[in-house]
Amino acid sequence: MDTILNPLLPTPHADPWVFYHEGAYYYCFSEGSSVFVSRSERLSGIGRAEPVRVYTAPEGTAYSRDYWAPELHRIDGGWVIYVAADDGQNARHRMYALAGDGPQSPFRMAGKVSTPDDHWAIDGTAFSYRDKRYFVWSGWEGDVDVSQQLYIAEMADPFTLRGQRVCLSRPEYAWECVGFPTVNEGPEALIKDGALHLVYSASGSWTDDYCLGMLTLQGDDLLNPQHWSKSPQPVFSKAEAANGPGHCSFTTSPDGSEDWIVYHAIEIPGGGWDGRSVRAQKFTWEDGRPVFGSPVPLGQEQTMA
């Protein structure tokens, strides 16, 4: 049993990625041009665990600065970290893959993860579904920062995309369009009993109205936008002392009996990026869809199996 009290990590911590593997939770995060991984046998301990610096970017490259939202994945027996980076100019943010031999081993640059158009890209994640692997990320349609949209491509291997990108979602509902540029970002796959959902963040992350939306696969072709449906309302949104809840990852209790969402939120209205802290709570399922409820109040005791 583990007792969870929010926040798991205080301000300023955001874009949490938590991965459970062989008896431990791994928390992957970035600072500047470095990536770190912490290890804890309890989810409640990720904020107290000693972080290990697994990668620092070299100077003078296209990927030397501004590392955002790294994700640690176990793929085909190896370890991969997907992370956005640039050369100091945001317009040059692209997705990159780092490769390592263990979750806290030194990682090396494996290369850019991109489709031929090579547009701005952040928040990439990989997942497998029906014996194929896919990459989903947030990107610009062109070269001007007016809207972030969600794109998908099939993967040829953990470091290479196959074919062109396909746009799955763009900001359209009012709750997706708070702030400018308008934003769909931070997609994460959530699979249960064969059903596939993509949970994503909507509206500006600097606003109190940042929230989670969801796409659900209704057909057979993940690369066909018509085979996806979008929830017309956010599936997770602000509550008292939990403004702008979003950019989540998913994990389970050690015995696999409980599903948990890890996310960031802002305690004080208007707190912006510097006010974000990392939180977690259990969620349930109803008719094949996740039910996240409302953000759990700060300091409320939660029990993990």
Describe how the helices and strands are arranged.
Elements: E1 2-4, E2 17-21, E3 24-31, E4 34-40, E5 52-56, E6 65-75, E7 78-86, E8 94-100, E9 107-112, E10 121-129, E11 132-140, E12 147-157, E13 160-169, E14 182-192, E15 195-202, E16 211-217, E17 228-230, E18 243-252, E19 259-266, E20 276-286, E21 289-291, E22 302-304
Parallel strand pairs: 12-14
Antiparallel strand pairs: 1-22, 2-3, 3-4, 4-5, 6-7, 7-8, 8-9, 10-11, 11-12, 12-13, 14-15, 15-16, 16-17, 18-19, 19-20, 20-21
- Classify the helix fraction into a percent range: under 10%
Number of DSSP-assigned strands = 22
Task: Show unreliable segments.
Answer: none
Q: Helix count?
A: 0
The CATH superfamily is identified as Glycosyl hydrolase domain, family 43
The biggest beta sheet is recorded as:
8 strands, mixed
The helix/strand series, from N terminus to C terminus, equals EEEEEEEEEEEEEEEEEEEEEE
- Overall body shape: globular
CATH class descriptor name = Mainly Beta
General description of the model:
The chain is an all-beta fold and 305 residues long. It has a single domain (2-304), classed as Tachylectin-2, Chain A (5 Propeller). It has strands at 2-4, 17-21, 24-31, 34-40, 52-56, 65-75, 78-86, 94-100, 107-112, 121-129, 132-140, 147-157, 160-169, 182-192, 195-202, 211-217, 228-230, 243-252, 259-266, 276-286, 289-291, 302-304. Strands 10, 11, 12, 13, 14, 15, 16 and 17 form an eight-stranded mixed beta sheet that branches. It has a four-stranded antiparallel beta sheet with strand order 2-3-4-5, with no helix packed on it.
